[in-house]
Fold this sequence. Notes:
The protein is an all-alpha fold. Helix content is 72%, strand content 0%.
Amino acid sequence: QKKRRAATARRQHLKSAMLQLAATEIEKEAAAKEVEKQNYLAEHCPPLSLPGSMQELQDLCRKLHSKIESVDEERYDIEVKLQKTNKELEDLSLKLFDLKGKFKRPPLRRVRMSADAMLRALLGSKHKVCMDLRANLKQVKKEDTEKEKDLRDVGDWRKNIEEKSGMEGRKKMFEAGE
C-alpha cells in the first residue's frame, strides 16, 4: 500500500507540475502574440495625425479609401483562393475515399410510393401533372397467329380423344395417314 500511495502521490505531483508548465507556456504564447500584434500595427498602421486644412483632410480620406479598396481586393482574392483550395481538398478526399473502397452504403428503407406521391414529395406544391403511366401507351391489336387458329379449331381436347377412341377413331387415323 505504501508503494501504491507513493506512486499515486508521485503521479499527482508530476501531473500538477505538467499543468503548471502548460499554464506558463500558454501565458508566454499570449504575450508573444500581443507583442507580434503591436509590431504589426506599428509597421502597417502609422499613427493618425489629423491635418488642419480641408484639402489635407480630403487627401487623407482619398488615401484611406484607396487603402481600403486595396485591402478589400486582397481579401476577395484570398477568399477565392481559399474556396478553390477547399474545393480541391474535397475532390481529393473523395478520390482518396473512393480509392480506399471503404465507403459504407447507408441502410435504405423500402418505401412504397406511387409516382404521383414521389413527384409531390420532390416538387412540393408545383406538382400538378398526374403521372398515369399507362395512359400514354399505344393500343396494340393482337394478330392471330396460325398456332392460335389451330388451337381454336381443335377445340376441346376431350372431343378429340373421344373421336379417336375405339375402332372408328383408328379407322379415321389410318385413312388420314394415307
